[in-house]
Design brief:
This protein has one domain (18-175). It contains four helices and four strands. The chain has helices at 18-21, 55-62, 91-102, 156-175, and strands spanning 35-42, 71-77, 83-88, 116-121. Strands 1-2-3-4 form a four-stranded antiparallel sheet. A hairpin with a 5-residue loop joins strand 2 and strand 3.
């Protein structure tokens, strides 16, 4: 099993459903409402290969200390379309929502109250998905601090990401039966 997983999109996700709108918003440095685009795991067993060769390197890339339970990286947009990453200690919740997405179902996700350990401007991995009605995802104009960005072409993280994609595709191919021509048949 690969340690690095592909992200899944929520779809043209709508803002959180009515019951979630009653919950207080997670405070962030810019005091903005953040809407989930997708989420991925940052644990010792599963983390984005773009962020590093080890869990520790991946944690350092987003500016958090390694924790035994790991983290979830929630890629969000603010109401103007700005990209933000919420880092949540709710790794099990992110894992659960990924399972739902992997079944082809759409559902929303909001980190539970008190679980967001950091909010960073930008997204640390490439993602072309955005929320309907918010325009193209972009780095927030008034972002303070360093903006998280995917690794550049030719960097070790980018090569690791491509290797993970190829490994995943080969694993998928190994699981299928080859239906080639049988010798002696026409």
């Amino acid at each position: 099993m690969s340690r690095h997983k592909k992200t899944r999109r929520v779809g043209n996700a709508a803002p959180p459903s009515e019951p979630h709108q009653d919950r207080p918003e997670q405070p962030d440095p810019q005091d903005r409402r953040l809407l989930t685009v997708t989420a991925l795991l940052l644990t010792a067993d599963e983390f984005p290969g773009e962020l590093g060769e080890s869990f520790e390197e991946a944690c350092a890339a987003v500016g958090v200390e390694p924790a035994a339970r790991g983290y979830g990286l929630v890629l969000t947009q603010d109401e103007q379309g700005g990209r933000w990453t919420q880092i949540t200690s709710d790794a099990s919740g992110v894992s659960s929502v990924q399972s739902i997405w992997n079944m082809g179902l759409e559902c929303g996700y909001e980190p539970p109250d008190g679980s967001v350990v950091a909010v960073r401007p930008g997204w640390p991995i490439p993602s072309e998905f955005g929320l309907a009605g918010l325009g193209e995802p972009h780095d927030p104009a008034d972002a303070s601090g360093s903006v998280l960005r995917p690794p550049r072409r030719g960097t070790p993280g980018r090569r690791r990401s491509m290797a993970d994609i190829i490994d995943g595709e080969l694993s998928d191919m190994r699981g299928r039966k080859h239906r080639g021509l049988h010798p002696g048949r026409t």
